[in-house]
Amino acid sequence: xxxxxxxxxxxxxxxxxxxxxxxxxxxxxxxxxxxxxxxxxxxxxxxxxxxxxxxxxxxxxxxxxxxxxxxxxxxxxxxxxxxxxxxxxxxxxxxxxxxxxxxxxxxxxxxxxxxxxxxxxxxxxxxxxxxxxxxxxxxxxxxxxxxxxxxxxxxxxxxxxxxxxxxxxxxxxxxxxxxxxxxxxxxxxxxxxxxxxxxxxxxxxxxxxxxxxxxxxxxxxxxxxxxxxxxxxxxxxxxxxxxxxxxxxxxxxxxxxxxxxxxxxxxxxxxxxxxxxxxxxxxxxxxxxxxxxxxxxxxxxxxxxxxxxxxxxxxxxxxxxxxxxxxxxxxxxxxxxxxxxxxxxxxxxxxxxxxxxxxxxxxxxxxxxxxxxxxxxxxxxxxxxxxxxxxxxxxxxxxxxxxxxxxxxxxxxxxxxxxxxxxxxxxxxxxxxxxxxxxxxxxxxxxxxxxxxxxxxxxxxxxxxxxxxxxxxxxxxxxxxxxxxxxxxxxxxxxxxx
Amino acid sequence: xxxxxxxxxxxxxxxxxxxxxxxxxxxxxxxxxxxxxxxxxxxxxxxxxxxxxxxxxxxxxxxxxxxxxxxxxxxxxxxxxxxxxxxxxxxxxxxxxxxxxxxxxxxxxxxxxxxxxxxxxxxxxxxxxxxxxxxxxxxxxxxxxxxxxxxxxxxxxxxxxxxxxxxxxxxxxxxxxxxxxxxxxxxxxxxxxxxxxxxxxxxxxxxxxxxxxxxxxxxxxxxxxxxxxxxxxxxxxxxxxxxxxxxxxxxxxxxxxxxxxxxxxxxxxxxxxxxxxxxxxxxxxxxxxxxxxxxxxxxxxxxxxxxxxxxxxxxxxxxxxxxxxxxxxxxxxxxxxxxxxxxxxxxxxxxxxxxxxxxxxxxxxxxxxxxxxxxxxxxxxxxxxxxxxxxxxxxxxxxxxxxxxxxxxxxxxxxxxxxxxxxxxxxxxxxxxxxxxxxxxxxxxxxxxxxxxxxxxxxxxxxxxxxxxxxxxxxxxxxxxxxxxxxxxxxxxxxxxxxxxxxxxxxxxxxxxxxxxxxxxxxxxxxxxxxxxxxxxxxxxxxxxxxxxxxxxxxxxxxxxxxxxxxxxxxxxxxxxxxxxxxxxxxxxxxxxxxxxxxxxxxxxxxxxxxxxxxxxxxxxxxxxxxxxxxxxxxxxxxx
Lengths: 498, 640
Hints:
The complex is a heterodimer of chains A (498) and B (640).
Chain A: H1 6-28, H2 34-55, E1 60-66, E2 70-76, H3 80-109, H4 115-129, H5 131-141, H6 145-166, H7 171-200, H8 216-232, H9 240-247, H10 253-275, H11 280-302, H12 307-328, H13 331-362, H14 378-392, H15 398-412, H16 417-428, H17 430-445, H18 451-454, H19 464-482, H20 485-495
Antiparallel strand pairs in A: 1-2
Chain B: H1 2-22, H2 27-32, H3 34-54, E1 57-64, E2 69-75, H4 77-100, H5 107-126, H6 130-148, E3 161-168, E4 171-175, H7 177-205, H8 216-242, H9 250-254, H10 260-268, H11 272-286, H12 297-320, H13 325-345, E5 353-354, E6 357-358, H14 359-389, H15 398-403, H16 405-419, H17 425-439, H18 441-444, H19 447-472, H20 486-508, H21 513-519, H22 522-540, H23 548-555, H24 561-593, H25 595-610, H26 615-639
Antiparallel strand pairs in B: 1-2, 3-4, 5-6
């Protein structure tokens, strides 16, 4: 099916939806929440259609001239399309989830405000929310370094405002922190991009391969890596992550995981594909950093009592699994890294959003005050367990398939013995993932139900608009875990050319 | 057509349990739908029998060929027998469960995981592809977590393990069901991850993941002694943790917090048996007796042999001090599984083949078969006793035994047929085991044989103790609830009757000829008599008060819980808190709260301090700058 401007539509429709909310906020009131849902359902359908074409071997390119130096090019190939599709599905699922969650946050934070003010906040959330899918898809489809930079920076804006308006206790301080870290990371990417321009006279990613062998390629890669590692919360640049994740409203939890993880895609797109050989010098150091981050993140997670902070800290380590695959620089390990990134954002969206449900329902964040909740919240418990098995990498989930592709990719290329040792330690560290996810499940959902929870009639599973989208994400994870071939074929059609 | 056989074999149990999951809120349906779940397992029984009689060799269906992942099933001697054993035992237990789990507060959870457990084990049994096997393997882990922690509310002492309120030092010696589930999954994951590493490494080093097609000798030669040892240790970590071998045995003891049906399945044909079965299966195809030239391999098999024997003795000794019905049986299972590992490991030094099969592996496998039916029977009896007496501790005198005649008789049969007493079933298999260990004297000395005999004798004693304290010399139960339990009786009577069939097979099959010959050897007869004597002593004197302190030490599993519940978690949480409190706070201080923000704050304050608004201040600054420039110029001029 030929749909004109299909890629542009995937970004333009959310822009229009955001404008509609902004301009008609007073008239549409609470119905504003349904506009992003409609827009994102439509864009998901578009991406599916585009996906079929790409799977059949077509590469979709669209170009729009944007000033004398920059062409706004969009590219959907085997790499960008599956990433964009999964991200868009998560955005859609969380837009459903947000309907009730935002209302709940407004009741908590702005209970003293009048209805009009609350409505203003409510609608503000949804038009800001739409900036996420716009930016994510922009990063995925962009063919130009400077456009990628702009979309990376654009992400900081909704994060800052949503955090400030709807976050938890320390929201103002953390919003500033998040903003600063975002800008710092983006600035390094900008420096790298400008350096590219100074060498090539263009920002086009398709031209970057000409930098191969150029001594400046090292510095360009270093700058972009630094910027993206900040986003990915690689040790020791991870310090923003626990606070930001813990204090933001949980309805954008999954999106924050995407925000951090999408850097893995950017690394593949702008560095690994065009400059594969020049990056070999970075391979082992990246793997070592990733391993340190995995272990450090897992240990940090084990120490948490706050359910949101637990999810936050686990993100630090989980992202670095992708990084370890990218660092190994073999075709399978890179594909595994990207695949694991997709799996992680699915699993984390489920786990984190379930943590949000728990907080939403019980009003408690401290796990030591929970226990036995499965009795009252069986669906939420199922969701948590689904998230846990995806992250832990239990077979038939996408997490397991991702780890399998990633680690066999590292082993099969027979890299240096250091690489093998790092990969082996990386695998062994997944023990810690199982420990913290299931230990948390034990603390939250099993054991005797605390009397104060038992007597609270409000504690029950959340509305279906919150739980069903997460169940769908879990099903997607199981489907691509059981049958990873379509996504792998797509990824291989691009990464396999290395 | 064959693909349908496999599809039905694996999917029937899982699919048939989905309706009860969907109807989890409807009490009426959740009371009826267990029959559908049991029917699903029955379909698996039929399929396993079909495979046993009709199919042979390898069956392959593509899944993700690029990654070496395919549906590859092996219908060889081991899997054909083990498949039937697994399916039949699961079916008998499921029938028993219809009665036992009646009125339970979450039947959907139970039946889903029970059926998943069965399907996962069947996958482990028939898989030739290591990846596929690992899928089943992890399915076992997930299902065991769900089932052991089934009674998650922790609201009934009868589901606990240990004595409420009892402490040894800082450690509480009582474990609730929810903790039992967590302990199981955490221990098992500890072994599964290295196993995953080993499988990934095999895929990288070998062109196939199919166990029967991997060139094991070439693989070991490629990776050298250190590589062989590391690879095999990673695999063994998975097997030892799953099979609860020392020092990973604690989860099995606290797994007794699950429903007894789960314990029965866990101990007989799935989970703990899975570890030993996979070891036998791998060894079957590795053929280590032909690989004596491979450096490192002997060390691996020595380790497996002694871990098995030590676990065997440890389990038997621990059981001798135990007074909880199911925990005693759990300890005895650990012991039996240890002997299976030891016998299979002994194959490295055994060249004797019967009908083309290695004697040591046959011994290990047949002991697994006998143990499966006998132990499942004992567990099912145990569950009935817990129902009848409302106590998880050994109790019941002769009068009680008379009122529970079927259970009493089944216990007599199961224990006598299991311990290795002449001339009952296990005697012939254990005679084979004696002969195998005798063979090892030349290579490893007499210690393996001594450990085996010691284990067998103590084991006989604890089985007799179980019989005696439940039906003959135990205290009178405080409650007696004897009505009902019809399907429970059917379950354990059917289960124990298979032991007779196994005896017939031992005397009929060609490959078990070695057992029969060994049974007439003088060493075996003497060991058999020692076992008989130990059994009689255990029956007559199930408690020895003079040894009560030693018994308490054994009952406390020789303080091994300290490793699981104290040393490891305390160390882990200490390190994680160290990272959180000091490491992370330090880095946070550098970037977010102290150093860099402080630096910017200081610079900002200094700049703001300039802005006083007084002209004199600005003149001072300008003059200062002019003076500074003049000094620089002067110094520069002199220097130049």
